[in-house]
């Protein structure tokens, strides 16, 4: 038994309780260390702008070199250096003496002798000015105008005070001449220390080219430099936005902008501290000139490289620390922090990435875990840092090899020294950056995770209507505002077309994610370094004067560092103290808004783990242990791939069809050891042909609730055929074209289902009571519940248990079953509807468009876009049809006759005084609707009596809808969610009021689902309520599963989303959807998925997920070619090694997503001893279907696997009314944990009282 270090538990607990110190102390230490560089990057540019703007004196600067370059094109020219020693160059007398020497050299020019002086005082003014103005102008030029390379080239012996030059003791003058110079005559106090002419060939030309580059006097080089700098800045800005979008799309951090700003501060300070350390210990006087004599892109390369590698460890830190679920308590957060420092993965999503697998490999084979268990913890980010440094060393080694191959001599030395310094700076900066990530950034993420409490905002804004509360509520679930603005979800812009540039850019931003390891190294890193390598080599070879570097006279010292002496006074220390005070003040303000002292005090001290808690490694590593689904395998039936699976969540039977046109019926829950299916493949007998064609294709399969009937639908011939389980044969076949007189185009099915036909409630109760009471005619307690039998409701309670007289009870059940007759219902696109009685084959035809709009007012373009069955307890069966013109038609079954009405929708009546009296729901036993519904046709005709249009107008859309029109039902409360483009509307079918509008993305047709937690009682009003409501769909462009979860985060009230609030605006005690918070969770590389009634999503995805199909195909081609070459090399061997067959769990990975908190749990797929796992791995999962209330059926080739968790009870006819748990928590908890029994007590109360009474009765 291996225990976690007690000091680690104590230290992480202290971090959770004191995040402010954990953030401020490390960042302030690095800030003080890097203050010199930070001062030059922040305060110095501000001083430069102010100083140059207020400079009223002469502008002492270098002159243009155009005249000298024109003169150098003719004749032979020499270069001479004059080194003058002064007490202080910036004094007026010294400046005047240097200028006099320049004038003397130029004044001696003749026709045969010409001299040009290159001096920093070339722009000496002609007018008389004060001495103080000359001195101030010279200091401004030295401190704010000249580059460090120019200062090192012309000055030496610098004196600096508070990072500003105050004096210089020597100055260099370079004379370009075509003849020998006369003897120099200098005025005191000037002294000539060096006077030498260069012997190098083309010395004057090379010097002038290098000097022109430094003062940006060469237009092509100037344009090239500025272009490269602009490109570097653009890459830097784009990369920052890319990191921001990737963090947003992970949906793990609430304050994405705050985290990105913290990361930028961390990278900047780490880079500055590394440069400061190297410049101090490397003997560099100025850090800006440490990257060589041509350092145009050295600093940019250095900063971008640090950002690039730091982002890699940043994403890893977020994944390991934030995990898949950031909505857990402090104790779980404490364990997650311990797991982070121990290197145990907190996220199941990144477990399939190559970097994760390589990390685990390094930890195992490099004895990292053994070091961790014996000495100190090592987080995964440290291993990633080591891998980054190893890869960086390989890249620079390759660059050094290229330099050694293509360059020799001084060029090789210059370039190698430059890249060696860049490598040292990057390595040191990444080490400092890693230290800040383990402290500063971890503290920021912990505070972000703790913001879920929001105690201060709740105490300050108890009123939910307060705009300040709404504003804070929006920031809690922060999403990407840029893509929302581009796509027109927020802001003044309209929605873009699907093919427009705005739509492409907006959707691309929504799909940005951290790139894979191969793309990171082969794409980002290599392209960046080799592009920079080209720019560095080009500018160095073009500009650097190589002849002068090898000159024995050493006239021009390229790369020379001017000697400098620093001093500081009280103003400097005051400045440092003021900046530190400003940082602390801003940090205190930020902590007050995010993690205040009041919130810290409200944290339970027992929430964090104690050092003596004996926490084991196995407890922390449970998430990394291999977990398997429970599985039922259906094989020995199909010989070829299964292409269709049909199920009914209330029935245990499963129907499958394959490519051989075989249709099989399975009973997966049967106790037989070898489950053999029954074939129901058939032919079409209703066609007037000599040969009966096979019933194919089977476009739709429907199973009744008890599994007694199975209907096969064929779209091509418009034929339906019914199979009865009792007789094991087809009992009827209907040709819809002959039966209805419609064409095949008009018979496109939109919905098909089974329902129970009802009879008069009074007659049914009399018959049942008579049979139950027996010969004495007494009314027993059992007969008192006849009114709640299966004939009066769509969600009936279960039949009572059999007791004393079994024969009588069986007769009663058989008679009751005879009253329940199944009816098959189909809705077609053109508004037609048929019902077929399964027992006597009676067909009834309805025309809903004519019943609602009138026969003469129906447009030819009017059609049903989607239809859905709505079954609500104690309410008639209903069908909701969404039409192309935006109307909704409700079909209700009243005494087995379907009535149609148009539902008027409204967005403005909810919570208004006009909607105080709501109509009662339609009763299942009522004979008529309200007057508004029955009189709809007459009212409609009366409104159109004056104009009398020839047909009902169908509005035409300007653009095609982005999302396919979809309706999903919330059965137990009679509400639906209707999709309109990028909006999903929660609609009350009783009143037609749009209660809530949700913004969604572009999803694949048929992938939209609505799931919710188990309905319970509202603690205030007692009506139905749910903990969460989730919208689930798959992205249209990528295999990405997107989940929108709406829940209440006010933990003080401990209330669920009450659904009475949405219907009764007078209810003010409860909280509805207006008080909910939206959480978004994105899951990439999802292959197949389906929702269950347990508020979870189950499915399968690739075990080694790739970022794109192109990379996957490319790697398959490379692997295939490498295998062919390997076999070719071993062609002489007798037994060639065959490649190992892949297994299913190597390619496919099962998963479960709990939409309550967005947690993703990975599960492997189990196999029996007689199963060949490689047979499953050679195919993709064909189709997936929901099975029962907590399982899914997935077809792999010719076999079907039913995957589930927990017990084997998979079928529940009425889930919410029988006490079966519909939550995943009891399954994931230990076996000895208490099971929470949640059910709708207001429906089951009477039945449960009878059950208790019977248990108390003595048995005789």
Q: Please identify the structural class as seen in this structure.
A: alpha+beta
Low-confidence stretches: 325-331, 348-352, 452-478, 601-606, 775-804, 913-956, 1106-1122, 1130-1138, 1229-1243
Fraction of residues in H or I helices: 25-40%
* H/I helix tally: 36
Total number of distinct structural domains: 6
Q: Average pLDDT value? A: 77
- Taking all Cα atoms into account, the compactness measure Rg is 40 Å
- Report the principal-axis shape: elongated
- Tell me what portion of residues adopts beta-strand conformation: 15-25%
Task: Give the terminus-to-terminus CA distance.
Answer: 57 Å
Q: Describe the main β-sheet briefly.
A: 6 strands, mixed
Compute the number of strand runs: 41
Characterise the protein shown here.
- There is one protein chain.
- With 1260 residues, the protein is an alpha+beta fold.
- It has six domains: 42-217 and 563-567, no CATH class; 223-453 and 515-541, no CATH class; 626-652 and 1088-1110 and 1140-1260, no CATH class; 731-756 and 820-909 and 932-943, no CATH class; 759-792, no CATH class; 965-1084.
- It is built from 36 helices and 41 strands.
- The strands form ten sheets. Strands 1, 2, 3, 4, 5 and 6 form a six-stranded mixed β-sheet that branches.
- Strand 25 and strand 26 form a beta hairpin.
- Helix 3 crosses helix 6 (131-145).
- The longest helix is centred in the middle third of the chain and has 42 residues, at 409-450.
- The protein is elongated.
- The chain crosses the membrane at residues 21-38, 223-245, 257-278, 290-309, 367-385, 391-415, 422-447, 528-549, 570-591.
- WD repeats lie at residues 635-667.
- InterPro entries: WD40_repeat_dom_sf (IPR036322), WD40_rpt (IPR001680).
- Keywords: Membrane, Transmembrane, Transmembrane helix, WD repeat.
- Residues 780-793 have a biased composition (Low complexity).
């Amino acid at each position: 038994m291996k225990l976690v270090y007690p000091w680690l538990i104590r230290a992480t607990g202290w971090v959770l309780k004191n995040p402010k110190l954990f953030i401020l102390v490390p960042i302030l230490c690095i800030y003080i260390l890097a203050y010199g560089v930070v001062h030059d990057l922040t305060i110095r540019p501000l001083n430069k702008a102010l100083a140059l703007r207020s400079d009223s004196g002469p502008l002492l600067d270098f002159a243009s070199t155009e005249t000298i370059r024109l003169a150098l094109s003719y004749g032979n020219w020499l270069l001479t250096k004059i080194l003058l020693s002064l007490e202080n160059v910036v004094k007026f007398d010294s400046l005047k003496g240097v200028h006099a020497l320049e004038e003397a050299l130029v004044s001696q020019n003749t026709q045969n002798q010409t001299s040009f002086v290159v001096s920093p005082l070339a722009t000496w003014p002609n007018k008389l000015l004060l001495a103080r103005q000359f001195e101030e102008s010279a200091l401004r030029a030295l401190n704010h105008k000249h580059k460090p390379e120019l200062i090192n080239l012309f000055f030496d012996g610098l004196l600096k005070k508070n990072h500003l030059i105050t004096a210089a003791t020597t100055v260099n003058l370079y004379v370009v001449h075509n003849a020998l110079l006369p003897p120099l005559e200098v005025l005191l106090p000037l002294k000539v220390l060096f006077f030498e002419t260069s012997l190098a060939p083309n010395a004057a030309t090379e010097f002038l080219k290098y000097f022109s580059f430094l003062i940006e006097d060469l237009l092509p080089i100037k344009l090239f430099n500025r272009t490269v700098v602009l490109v570097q800045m653009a890459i830097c800005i784009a990369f920052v936005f890319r990191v921001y979008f990737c963090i947003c799309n992970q949906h793990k951090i609430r304050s994405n902008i705050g985290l990105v700003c913290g990361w930028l501060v961390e990278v900047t300070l780490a880079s500055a501290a590394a440069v400061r350390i190297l410049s101090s210990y490397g003997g560099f006087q100025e850090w800006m000139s440490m990257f060589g004599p041509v350092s145009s892109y050295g600093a940019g390369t250095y900063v971008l490289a640090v950002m690039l590698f730091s982002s890699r460890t940043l994403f890893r830190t977020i994944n390991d620390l934030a995990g898949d679920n950031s909505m857990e308590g402090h104790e779980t957060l404490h364990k997650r922090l311990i797991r982070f420092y121990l290197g145990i993965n907190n996220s199941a999503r990144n477990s399939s990435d190559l970097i994760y697998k390589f990390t685990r490999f390094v930890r195992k084979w490099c004895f990292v875990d053994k070091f961790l268990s014996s000495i100190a913890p090592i987080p995964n980010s440290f291993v990633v840092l080591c891998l980054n440094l190893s890869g960086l060393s390989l890249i620079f080694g390759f660059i050094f090899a290229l330099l050694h191959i293509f360059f020799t001599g001084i060029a090789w030395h210059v370039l190698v020294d430059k890249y060696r310094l860049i490598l040292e700076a990057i390595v040191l900066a990444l080490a400092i950056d890693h230290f800040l990530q383990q402290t500063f950034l971890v503290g920021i993420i912990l505070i972000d995770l703790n913001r879920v409490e929001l105690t201060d905002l709740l105490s300050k804004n108890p009123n939910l209507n307060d705009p300040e509360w709404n504003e804070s509520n929006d920031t809690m679930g922060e999403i990407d505002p840029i893509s929302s603005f581009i796509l027109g979800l927020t802001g003044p812009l309209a929605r873009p077309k699907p093919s427009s540039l705005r739509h492409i850019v907006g959707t691309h931003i929504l799909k940005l994610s951290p790139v894979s390891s191969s793309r990171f190294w082969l794409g980002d890193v290599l392209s960046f370094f080799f592009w920079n390598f080209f720019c560095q080599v080009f500018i160095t070879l073009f500009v650097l004067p190589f002849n002068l570097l090898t000159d024995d006279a050493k006239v021009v010292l390229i790369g020379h560092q001017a000697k400098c002496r620093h001093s500081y006074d009280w103003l400097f220390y005051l400045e440092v103290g003021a900046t530190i005070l400003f940082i602390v003040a801003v940090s205190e303000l930020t902590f007050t808004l995010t993690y205040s002292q009041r919130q810290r005090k409200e944290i339970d001290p027992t929430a964090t783990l104690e050092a003596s808690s004996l926490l084991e490694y196995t407890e922390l590593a449970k998430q990394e242990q291999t977990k398997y689904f429970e599985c039922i395998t259906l094989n020995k039936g199909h010989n070829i791939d299964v292409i269709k699976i049909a199920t009914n969540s209330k029935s245990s039977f499963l129907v499958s069809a394959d490519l051989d046109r075989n249709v099989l019926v399975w009973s997966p829950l049967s106790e037989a050891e070898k489950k053999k299916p029954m074939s129901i493949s058939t032919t079409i007998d209703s066609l007037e042909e000599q040969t009966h064609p096979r019933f194919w294709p089977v476009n739709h399969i429907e199973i009744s609730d008890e599994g007694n009937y199975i209907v096969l639908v064929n779209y091509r011939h418009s034929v339906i055929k019914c199979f009865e389980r009792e007789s094991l044969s087809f009992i009827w076949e209907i040709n819809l074209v002959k039966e209805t007189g419609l064409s095949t185009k008009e018979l496109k099915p939109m919905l098909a289902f089974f329902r129970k036909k009802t009879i008069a409630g009074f007659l049914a109760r009399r018959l049942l009571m008579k049979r139950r009471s027996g010969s004495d005619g007494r009314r027993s307690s059992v007969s008192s519940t006849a009114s709640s039998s299966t004939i009066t409701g769509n969600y009936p309670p279960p039949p009572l248990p059999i007791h004393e007289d079994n024969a009588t009870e069986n007769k009663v059940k058989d008679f009751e079953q005879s009253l329940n007759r199944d009816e098959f219902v189909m809705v077609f696109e053109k508004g037609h509807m048929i019902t077929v009685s399964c027992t006597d084959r009676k067909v009834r035809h309805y025309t809903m468009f004519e019943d609602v709009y009138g026969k003469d007012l129906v447009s030819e373009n009017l059609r049903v876009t989607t239809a859905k069955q709505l079954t609500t307890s104690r309410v008639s069966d209903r069908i909701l049809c969404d039409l192309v013109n935006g109307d909704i038609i409700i079909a209700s079954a009243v005494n087995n006759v379907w009535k149609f009405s148009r539902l008027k929708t409204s967005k403005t009546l909810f919570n208004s005084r006009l909607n105080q009296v709501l109509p009662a729901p339609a009763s299942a036993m009522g004979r008529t609707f309200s007057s508004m519904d029955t009189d709809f046709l007459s009212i409609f005709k009366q409104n159109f009596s004056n104009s009398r249009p020839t047909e009902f107008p169908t509005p035409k859309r300007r653009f095609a809808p982005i999302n396919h029109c979809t309706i999903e039902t919330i059965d137990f409360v009679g509400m639906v969610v209707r999709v309109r483009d990028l909006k999903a509307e929660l609609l009350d079918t009783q009143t037609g009021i749009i209660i809530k509008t949700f913004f969604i993305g572009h999803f694949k047709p048929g992938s939209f689902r609505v799931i919710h937690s188990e309905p319970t009682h509202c603690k205030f009003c007692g009506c139905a309520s749910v903990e969460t409501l989730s919208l689930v769909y798959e992205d249209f462009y990528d295999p990405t599963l997107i989940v929108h979860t709406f829940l209440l985060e006010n933990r003080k009230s401990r209330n669920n989303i009450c659904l009475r609030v949405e219907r009764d605006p007078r209810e003010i005690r409860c909280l509805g959807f207006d008080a909910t918070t939206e959480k978004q969770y994105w899951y990439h590389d999802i292959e197949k998925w389906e929702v269950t009634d347990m508020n979870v999503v189950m499915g399968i995805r690739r075990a080694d997920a790739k970022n794109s199909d192109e990379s996957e195909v490319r790697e398959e081609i490379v692997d295939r070619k490498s295998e062919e070459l390997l076999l070719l090399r071993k062609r002489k061997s007798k037994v060639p090694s065959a490649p190992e067959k892949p297994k299913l769990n190597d390619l496919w990975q099962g998963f479960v997503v709990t939409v309550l908190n967005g947690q993703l749990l990975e599960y492997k797929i189990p196999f029996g001893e007689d199963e060949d796992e490689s047979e499953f791995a050679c195919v993709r999962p064909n189709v997936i279907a929901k099975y029962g209330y907590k399982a899914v059926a997935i077809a792999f080739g010719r076999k079907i696997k039913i995957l589930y968790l927990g017990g084997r009870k998979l079928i529940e006819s009425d889930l919410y009314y029988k006490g079966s748990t519909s939550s995943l928590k009891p399954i994931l908890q230990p076996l000895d944990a208490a099971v929470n029994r949640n059910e709708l007590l207001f429906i089951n109360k009477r039945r449960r009282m009878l059950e208790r009474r019977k248990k108390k009765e003595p048995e005789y």
